[in-house]
Every structure is written in C-alpha cells, then in structure tokens.
Amino acid sequence: MLFRSRTLYALTTIAALVRLLPERDPHPSLYDALEVILNTMDQDDLAAPLLVRFEVALLAELGFGLDLSECAATGTKEKLIYVSPKSGRAVCEEAGAPYRGRVFKLPAFLLDQASGGLPAESDIADGLALTGYFLERHLFGARNLPLPEAREALSTLYRQGTGAETPA
Length: 168
Known about the structure:
The longest helix is centred in the C-terminal third of the chain and has 20 residues. The protein starts with a helix and ends in a 6-residue tail after the last helix. The model has no long low-confidence stretch (mean pLDDT 91). The protein is mostly helical and 168 residues long. It is 47% helix and 5% strand.
C-alpha cells in the first residue's frame, strides 16, 4: 500500500493527539473514528477531512467541544459560516459579518452540508485552522507543547494551495 504525504501527516498527527488522552480512560467514539480513518488510509484525499473531524471529536471528548448547532448571537440554525474564537460557537453570516477578520470560517463539511464528494481544499484549510486554534489553546498550549510538526506541515500544504488565512 502506497501512502502519500497527506495520509502520513494525518496519521502522525493522530498519534500525537491520542497521546493527550487520559490513560486508561475509554473513548469508544474516538476508537470508532480511528477505525474509519485506518480503513481509509489508501485514500489520500480523505486524510485531512477525516483528521479535522477527528480533532473536533477529540476536543468534545476532552470537554472543549465546539458548538456548531446554532448561532451564538441570534440562535438561528441557518447560514452558519463562522466560529467565534472566544466561545467556540457557530455564528451566522449576518451576525458574524462585522467580525469577519476575527472569526474562523466554518467549513460546510463540519455541518454535513457539503454537496457530496470531497470538501474543497479551502474548506479543509479552514477546518485545520479552526481545530488547530482550539487544540493549541486548550490542549497543547496548556501543556506548553507546540502543535505536532506533521499537523503544521499538512496545514501548510492546504494553506499554500488555497491562500487561506487564520483570523488575528
């Protein structure tokens, strides 16, 4: 089986992430997610989107879940396109517009609103920026650790390909 760089970066990142889990503390949903990821290792284009979904699940399992169910400002469930870096909650287009440069883009594939197929590379870059921020803030930064190098390399691949930026 030939592994491409995105798959290797994603698997190396996942190995670093699972080391953050409390020892002997079962996480069946993460185990199930890992099983899906391992069963799709031969599909390099799935590696990054699955990693982003895994990171969202990991954050939730460890008590730092993102709330993507409704707008933090209005309560609406429509047009959720941003995430607040302060609260980790979704923000709708209208409420987030004045803060566009200070909020994260919410990729549609995290809301299951993608129109089938693979997410666009720009959505993957946005997803990596989003989860990377919260991983650094709540998990790695709290331990005075940098984000895994493999994750940074994967994120760079997608940012360079799309020109995506992270909020200030």
